[in-house]
Every structure is written in C-alpha cells, then in structure tokens.
Amino acid sequence: MLLILMPFKYIPIKIMIIMDEVQIISTYKTILTITHQMLKAAQGNNWEKLFALEQECKKLTHALITNPPQRILSADTQKRKIEIIHQILACDAKIRDITEPWMAHLQKLLTPYSQTTSAKWSKYH
After folding, report:
1. Does the pLDDT at position 10 exceed 90?
2. pTM over 0.85, yes/no
3. Cα distances (Å, whole numbers) of residue 78 to 4, 35, 57
4. Contact call for residues 36 and 49 (beta carbons, < 8 A)
5. In this structure, which long-range contacts are made by residues 45-48, counting pairs with CB atoms below 8 Å and at least 24 apart in sequence?
6. 67 close to 24: Cβ distance less than 8 angstroms
7. Residue 52: CA atoms inside 13 Å, Cβ hemisphere, count?
8. Which of 11, 23, 71, 125, CA to CA, is 20 to 30 A from 64?
9. In the predicted model, what is the mean pLDDT of residues 48-55?
C-alpha cells in the first residue's frame, strides 16, 4: 500500500502488480523452497525459524491470491503449477506430522496450568 502525502491527509492507494506466467511459477517455486526449509526447521525443532518462514510463505501466498485474474495459463505452465502445488502439499503434510503431535503435547502440558490458574482466579471473582 502506498500513502501519498497531501496537506492534512493520507490517501491510501493500492498498487496491483499483475504477474505473468514466469512470475507466477517463480512464486510457486519460492514457496516450495521455503516449505522445504520449514520442514527442515520442524525436523530440527527450530520453532522460531519455522514461524519466520511461515510468515514469508504467507506473504507470497497472499501475493498469488491477490494477483488479478489474467488469461488462462498455458497447458505446460498449468501442469508445472499443479506439480509444484502437490510438492508443497506433501511437504506441508510432513510438517504437520511433526508439529501436530508436538502441539497436542504442549496443549496437555498447558491445560493443567490453565485449569489451576483459572481455579485460583475464580476464588477472587
């Protein structure tokens, strides 16, 4: 978003960048690369890095989602896009296989604490 400074006002202006086929595929490839890095971070229990990479991925995904519709992709480009998406989803499944049990474990650890804390605070209300 670009802000143009006017006397006494800020006027937000959205600038749309229309991606061509090469840029679209490049963005999907970058998401795939980041997803592989996310998997390595999850395998190494590097949660800070995983979170940071997830934020990068969200930005790129947002760019694809907000990209104005354009002409239909060529058959080869569409095929390549689908192949990359399948690879991204496979990586994402592996990441979830690592993070979901960890999150469930963390939830179990925190639940007694939150119940104890709630019980303590309820005495005062």
Report:
1. no
2. no
3. 38, 20, 21
4. no
5. none
6. yes
7. 6
8. 11
9. 96
Q: Is the pLDDT of residue 83 over 80?
A: yes
User: What single-letter amino acid sits at 102?
Assistant: W
Q: What is the pLDDT of residues 17-35, one digit of tens each?
A: 678 889 999 999 999 999 9
N residues, the chain: 125
Structure tokens of 36? 């592989």
Joined together, the tokens standing for residue 112 give: 């007694």
Say which residues have a Cβ less than 8 Å from residue 85's Cβ, sequence separation at least 6: 28
Chain centre to alpha carbon of residue 78: 22
Which residues in 14-44 are b (16+ Cβ under 10 Å) and which e?
Answer: eeeeeeebeebbebbeebbebbbbbbebbee
